[in-house]
């Protein structure tokens, strides 16, 4: 948030509302949007609220802000997301929590001693947050493995795609294209001034890794999966009239967006395939009109399975109720500055990172339309079209 204020020079008191997305919430800062805004020096008169929608939480924050502007409630909104994966809340077991709450209500020493005597060693086993579906009790990695198998995506293809992501991210970083990273001083450590998860490897080294989820025959490994990391993002959204009146030149315009939900078991990660044709139809565009594609890379297998599904008439007819396929995005327009596999995936922050990357790519490449897609837990997805660069 401080970085946004510095980069844009937007007066703090001009911001009408702040919306932030997050996934693993800390109870002490349950409305992290408000706490972060106050900490960053925004006016205490500026309302703020927090949204959560798994990996598309900051996408939801952005479209919530856009909706408020479209409804005439606001002229200027700051949206973003944050995740602190290095310090996730860890809870006591349910038995221990129940005992502690009851103990807090006990009035006599005898009642307290009686409760304490009932505590058993297994009460102290902590409950760790898991990247798993509540409805299926299955991790997203298992879903990615099954999806890759269903679409015939080999381990070799996944490793090749992951290597592509790291290689492109490294090239973009060295070329100064990842310009929106704000240096951050980590308490007790050095200042982080660039994404530090970009590690181009070799196919030989990647091939040595064992399956991470479906053992021993799975194809999803640590090398072809996005890694969890800390991160935060922020984006400034205005009505066109307000932006021009304040002397700002818009980086991009939001043309349209779509949210869809799928079966959270077998089609957990296939949302981009379902949502892309819908948003293109809403926007009056075709796949050929899109100059820049930015898809969230949860897993290499997930990306490649979606590309195959998008390019399949059979899948379109049998699963989507469509007469023909939408088509697969060409790779020369697809995540050409790297993606979540190489840059990392701080759940709540990724959506804004995708959108601003699309806007910068459009400007750099002279394109007009961009399409952003991100899948999320629960079988949900958000597709945004289009970031239209203001020439």
Automatic annotation (TrEMBL):
Its EC number is 2.3.1.155, 2.3.1.16. Keywords: Acetylation, Acyltransferase, Endoplasmic reticulum, Fatty acid metabolism, Lipid metabolism, Membrane, Mitochondrion, Mitochondrion inner membrane, Mitochondrion outer membrane, Transferase, Transit peptide. It comes from the Eukaryota. Pfam families: Thiolase_C (PF02803), Thiolase_N (PF00108). It catalyses: butanoyl-CoA + acetyl-CoA = 3-oxohexanoyl-CoA + CoA; decanoyl-CoA + acetyl-CoA = 3-oxododecanoyl-CoA + CoA; octanoyl-CoA + acetyl-CoA = 3-oxodecanoyl-CoA + CoA; tetradecanoyl-CoA + acetyl-CoA = 3-oxohexadecanoyl-CoA + CoA. One of its GO terms (molecular function) is acetyl-CoA C-acyltransferase activity. Its main location: endoplasmic reticulum. Belongs to the thiolase-like superfamily. Thiolase family. Heterotetramer of 2 alpha/HADHA and 2 beta/HADHB subunits; forms the mitochondrial trifunctional enzyme. Also purified as higher order heterooligomers including a 4 alpha/HADHA and 4 beta/HADHB heterooligomer which physiological significance remains unclear. The mitochondrial trifunctional enzyme interacts with MTLN. Interacts with RSAD2/viperin. Mitochondrial trifunctional enzyme catalyzes the last three of the four reactions of the mitochondrial beta-oxidation pathway. The mitochondrial beta-oxidation pathway is the major energy-producing process in tissues and is performed through four consecutive reactions breaking down fatty acids into acetyl-CoA. Among the enzymes involved in this pathway, the trifunctional enzyme exhibits specificity for long-chain fatty acids. PANTHER family: ACETYL-COA C-ACYLTRANSFERASE (PTHR18919), TRIFUNCTIONAL ENZYME SUBUNIT BETA, MITOCHONDRIAL (PTHR18919:SF153). This is Trifunctional enzyme subunit beta, mitochondrial. It comes from Grantiella picta.
């Amino acid at each position: 948030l401080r970085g946004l204020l510095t980069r844009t020079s937007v007066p703090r008191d001009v911001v009408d509302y702040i919306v932030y997305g997050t996934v693993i919430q800390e109870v002490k800062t349950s409305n992290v949007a408000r706490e972060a805004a106050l900490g960053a020096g925004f006016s205490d008169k500026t309302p703020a609220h927090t949204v959560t929608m798994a990996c598309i939480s900051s996408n939801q924050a952005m479209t919530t802000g856009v909706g408020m502007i479209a409804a005439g409630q606001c002229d200027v909104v700051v949206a973003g997301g944050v995740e602190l994966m290095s310090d996730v809340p860890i809870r006591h077991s349910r038995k221990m929590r129940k005992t502690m709450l009851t103990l807090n209500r006990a009035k006599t020493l005898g009642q307290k001693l009686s409760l304490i005597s009932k505590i058993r060693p297994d009460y102290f086993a902590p409950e760790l947050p898991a990247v798993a579906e509540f409805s299926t009790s299955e991790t997203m990695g298992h879903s990615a493995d099954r999806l890759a198998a269903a679409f015939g995506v080999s381990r070799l293809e996944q490793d090749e795609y992951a290597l592509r992501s790291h290689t492109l991210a490294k090239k973009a970083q060295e070329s100064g294209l990842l310009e929106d990273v704000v240096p951050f001083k980590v308490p007790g450590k050095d200042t982080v001034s660039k994404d530090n998860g970009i590690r181009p490897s070799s196919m030989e080294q990647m091939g040595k890794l064992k399956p991470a989820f479906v053992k021993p025959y799975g194809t999803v490994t640590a090398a072809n999966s996005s890694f969890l990391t800390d991160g935060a993002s922020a984006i400034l959204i205005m009505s066109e009239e307000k932006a021009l009146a304040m002397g700002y030149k818009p980086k991009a315009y939001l043309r349209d967006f779509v949210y869809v939900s799928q079966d959270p078991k077998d089609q957990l990660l296939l949302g981009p395939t379902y949502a892309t044709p819908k948003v293109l139809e809403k926007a009056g565009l075709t796949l050929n009109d899109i100059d820049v594609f930015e898809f969230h890379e949860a897993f290499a297998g997930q990306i490649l399975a979606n590309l195959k599904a998008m390019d399949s008439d059979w899948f379109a007819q049998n699963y989507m109720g469509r007469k023909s396929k939408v088509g697969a995005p060409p790779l020369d327009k697809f995540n050409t500055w790297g993606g979540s596999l190489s840059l990392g995936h701080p759940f709540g922050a990724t959506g804004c990172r995708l959108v601003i990357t699309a806007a910068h790519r459009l400007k750099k490449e002279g394109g007009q339309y961009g399409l952003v897609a991100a899948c999320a837990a629960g079988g949900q997805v958000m597709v945004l079209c289009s970031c239209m660069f203001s020439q």
